From TrEMBL:
<keyword id="KW-0810">Translation regulation</keyword>
<keyword id="KW-0678">Repressor</keyword>
<dbReference type="InterPro" id="IPR036107">
    <property type="entry name" value="CsrA_sf"/>
</dbReference>
<dbReference type="GO" id="GO:0005829">
    <property type="term" value="C:cytosol"/>
</dbReference>
<dbReference type="GO" id="GO:0006402">
    <property type="term" value="P:mRNA catabolic process"/>
</dbReference>
<dbReference type="InterPro" id="IPR003751">
    <property type="entry name" value="CsrA"/>
</dbReference>
<comment type="subunit">
    <text>Homodimer; the beta-strands of each monomer intercalate to form a hydrophobic core, while the alpha-helices form wings that extend away from the core.</text>
</comment>
<dbReference type="GO" id="GO:0048027">
    <property type="term" value="F:mRNA 5'-UTR binding"/>
</dbReference>
<keyword id="KW-1005">Bacterial flagellum biogenesis</keyword>
<dbReference type="GO" id="GO:0044781">
    <property type="term" value="P:bacterial-type flagellum organization"/>
</dbReference>
<keyword id="KW-0694">RNA-binding</keyword>
<comment type="similarity">
    <text>Belongs to the CsrA/RsmA family.</text>
</comment>
<protein>
    <recommendedName>
        <fullName>Translational regulator CsrA</fullName>
    </recommendedName>
</protein>
<dbReference type="GO" id="GO:1902208">
    <property type="term" value="P:regulation of bacterial-type flagellum assembly"/>
</dbReference>
<dbReference type="GO" id="GO:0045947">
    <property type="term" value="P:negative regulation of translational initiation"/>
</dbReference>
<comment type="function">
    <text>A translational regulator that binds mRNA to regulate translation initiation and/or mRNA stability. Usually binds in the 5'-UTR at or near the Shine-Dalgarno sequence preventing ribosome-binding, thus repressing translation. Its main target seems to be the major flagellin gene, while its function is anatagonized by FliW.</text>
</comment>
<keyword id="KW-0963">Cytoplasm</keyword>
Length: 71
């Protein structure tokens, strides 16, 4: 993992297409802006985990449905 220190107004580039802008730093909270092509999904980490968990539960429920359907 790369760890960088940035101040408000400074940027970080990822590849040629993604720019991270540090908008504001207030206490323990940092506000960032992200400029990226529409083809790149940008999602908060906790939402990604929620979606992953939800998808796993859905697969398990579907497997249970088919298992019970054969009984």
């Amino acid at each position: 993992m790369l760890v960088l220190s940035r101040k408000a107004g400074e940027t970080i580039w990822i590849g040629e297409d993604v720019e991270i802008i540090i908008s504001e730093v207030k206490g323990e909270q940092v506000k960032i802006g992200i400029r990226a092509p529409r083809s790149i999904d940008v999602i908060r980490g906790e939402l990604r985990q929620d979606v992953s968990t939800s998808n796993t539960e859905s697969v398990i429920n579907n497997l249970d449905f088919f298992k019970n359907d054969k009984d």
